[in-house]
Specification:
mainly alpha, c-terminal domain of poly(a) binding protein, 5 helices, 74% helix
């Protein structure tokens, strides 16, 4: 009796992998074993960078808040400490947006936190 190989499933699996590798350069998008390696590597990077992205955005927000706060003669840490003491619950994303897009509102926040 011949060995059953389930060609439909294995063909579908290969097709799925090659479609994930679509757009890769040269053999990376055409040769199955090479494509498998590069898709796996890409998925690893994607998983890792979904976490790093959050860190990088937080760093960006802090840098923006600090730069804007220093225009009002206050540094970042004193601003955040002042906001915490006044029980102002505003996150860094919103603060950074205020600093960049609404400088007048940010100035009011700084004045309130340092008063």
């Amino acid at each position: 009796m011949p060995r059953s190989q389930n060609k439909v499933a294995s063909h579908r699996r290969r097709k799925k992998l090659l479609s994930q590798a679509k757009g890769y350069w040269g053999g990376r998008s055409k040769v199955l074993t090479v494509a498998k390696h590069h898709v796996e590597k890409a998925l690893t990077h994607a998983y890792r960078h979904r976490r790093t992205k959050k860190r990088e955005y937080r760093q960006l927000w802090i840098a923006r808040i600090n730069a804007a706060a220093r225009l009002h003669n206050v540094n970042y840490s004193r601003l955040i400490t002042g906001l915490n003491k006044k029980n102002v619950d505003i996150n860094r994303k919103v603060l950074a947006d205020l600093a960049v897009n609404h400088p007048q509102a940010f100035a009011e926040v700084v004045k309130f936190a340092t008063a």
